[in-house]
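Notes from the pairing session

We agreed to fold both candidates in a single pass and log them together. This is the raw record for the first candidate, unedited. Please don't reformat it; downstream parsing expects exactly this layout.

Candidate A
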Amino acid sequence: MTTSAPARPIRIAMLGCGVVGTEVARFLLRDAEELGRRVGAPVELVGIAVRRLERTRSLDIPSELFTTDAKALVTRGDLDVVIEVIGGIEPARELILAALESGASVVTANKALLAEDGDTLYEAAVKAERDLYYEAAVAGAIPIVRPLRESLAGDRVERVLGIVNGTTNFILDAMTTTGAGFDDALDEAQRLGFAEADPTADVEGFDAAAKAAILAGLAFHTRVTIADVHREGITEVTAADVASASEIGSVVKLLAICEIDPEGTAVSVRVHPAMIPATHPLASVRGAYNAVFVESEAAGQLMFYGPGAGGAPTASAVLGDVVTVARHRVDGVFGPGETVHAQVEVLDIGRARTRYHVQIDVEDRPGVLAAVAEAFAVHDVSIKTVRQEGRGGDAQLVVVTHEADDAALAATVRQLRDLEMVRGVSSVMRVEGVS
């Protein structure tokens, strides 16, 4: 009886050792034997590139693994997998390209780079015949990239609706459950560690927009960058907006919305706060959790839910990709690359189809409702519901529209503001998830 020679070790290097990187390294070292059994070859962490060697790090990570020469590490020539968790555009892009050119597959959590210049990374991976995997770039531990990239590859995805930023979901959830204003809810999120000292990337929607670009590209086989994504944050959402949503049986969420038209000729990708019915599955996503709701022709409605950030949850997604990529190296194959065969038009926000919830402060006198209805009719916007609240100086009309082009809805709001009997339009918010 003969036995095969043991497989050579899969050599792994890592770029960055922050919150996520520390957890990835810890699991790689602690579970090396078990991961090796799953891969079919020993797994060996051979180096970690950091900016400063003197920074205090986990005692579980041997100091001899650290180096400040990231370029030398990724180009050493004997690596099988490089994990990138430093974030940002540069030097991450340069180092990923160097790793691929040097023969290593890449696992990255870098949503910003993928959303800005993913095509460059994909092309380099194809040229090198190496893998580029990035499950951790969208929604932390939630497996959504691979289902869109592989599991639903034979289906027709029609819509992806997601809560993909935990900070904003925590803030909006706090505003819903406590009645707090935005500033107070943000302060609480920062106190509890759910928001950064500078929360701009989260509360202004930049983080969610990058993730939306990635999801749309995967779902619709079309190259989408962050520049294609319409983006609005939550800083203008008020306690009154949240209360108004409650009055119509809805909640306010920051949503990433990716959808294709019925003809399959154009896609819309947008991030903005919206009211969704309290009965919608996404309405029950609480705190800092994330969820992605997928609608497809054959599979129907699917929802993926879980922690969207944090060291250990994100490390789980990274390690899942590492095992897959390492198996490919053992077998001498590589996985799916970018699919942009559809390459359909990406619409600007004005051509997106949506609904509005509009609160209009009006004079309490005859003819007001007719004038308001006429402003909607002029722009071919159909009214679904209208109700009056208050009397006299507190009179207010609350209008919910049927679906229309966003440009027509925006033009209607502008005309409303010019009407003599309208004192002001106090709130405008899109409505999603309503049939």
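Candidate B (folded immediately after A)
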Amino acid sequence: MSFASPLFLWYFLPAVLAAVLVAPRAGRNAVIAVASLVFYASGAGGTTLLLLACVVVNYLAGLRLEPVEWGFERSRRRWLLIGTVSFDLAVLAVWKYAGFATEQLAVLSSWFGGDFPVLELALPIGISFYTFHHVSYVVDIYRGERPALRNPVSFVTYIAMFPQLVAGPIVRYREIADQLPQQRTHRLDDIAAGFPRFAWGLTKKVVVADTLAPMVDTCFATPGEEMTFAIAWLGAIGYTVQLYFDFSGYSDMAIGLGRMLGFRLPENFARPYSSVTVTEFWRRWHMSLSRWFRDYVYIPLGGNRRGRARTYRNLAIIFVLTGFWHGAAWTYLVWGLFHGLLLVVERSCGWTHAPADLRARLARRALTMLLVVVGWVFFRAPDLGSAFVMLGHMLVPDFSGLTDIVAASVTHQRVVFLLLALVVVFLPASSGTGPFLESVRTREAHALRLGVLTLGLGYSGLLVATGSFSPFLYYQF
């Protein structure tokens, strides 16, 4: 059930909001928990049982990880934490990576005449996200940063809350723990505050990202022998814009939905394409994932406190994990290693901060954007061979132009939306497009966005009603 589907917009969301409005204060979390499980089961089917099993294990473990309440010795609590986190990661590894691992073993086996069986498991929706939520929950309790939730309904609300269950943002337990027990009273105010953010995300997704999707798909589906310089760059730039408007649009919708339900979810984007360095890019892109890896992997490994060699090693580990977290494929691993290498180079050369000179800063921003676009080719390509073919054509100009199939996908509407989107995302940060693209902080930006919403929301509703939408790109992760 996509946020941009008629079933969600016309039926599910109004029913949930109505139930939240009429439910007694103490029953609001129960309404959200039940609605979230229904939302998840509508798409996940039988794998909902896997989610519930993980919920039970982590809820019970959380209760016993509190040292004061249960009097566990430190070593016993540590082993309980290790066992719980190992369980969570094992579930993720089996369901997301076992098929990929057996495929590689099958390839090796075929070299020696063997026939190793390949395990085929359907990837449960949102498993990468709710696994990280579970790990955050038990670790934050073990560290004493927040108490365990005694009420199982509140725990299910945190883990399964439908705005963030399928594709984030990744909400660390410490960020929402204080909100869960509160009986929120300003329900109409929450709906009024959250709806514009939801509508803005819907506009970004349906009007821009979905409009560009057929053109981008056609470019990346072009056979290697037909690939040209123009097709390669059109596909790479188109996907750069499509992915941003799709994923940031989803995050806007999730944050808006969370607010309508009475929760304040963390921001996930801050104009990432305005970054002057790759280091800055990762402070602005998918920020909830970066914060999670920082708090639960990078800092425990030692962060940057134990010398350059350890710092570079830790960065490499983080980005290998970041790549594989996105998917079980060599393309994601290479994409992660590519960004990890860029961060190591920037840190070793002292390039982690923007230069003071304007021309140097503009040059660095252009270089950063170029490197990000190159990385997205690995991220989007179906395999490494296709990625290298596309990158090869991007490096060698030719005069072949577009094939007939690609040219047919490049409509006037898509060209206009692509150019407008490029103008908006690449404007300087001082232009005011930060508040325009993400959160609203000024009255002028609010008025401008309200005007865009008036047109965009109506057009989005028309597109949704006619079925002109596609699933969010991050649903596959």
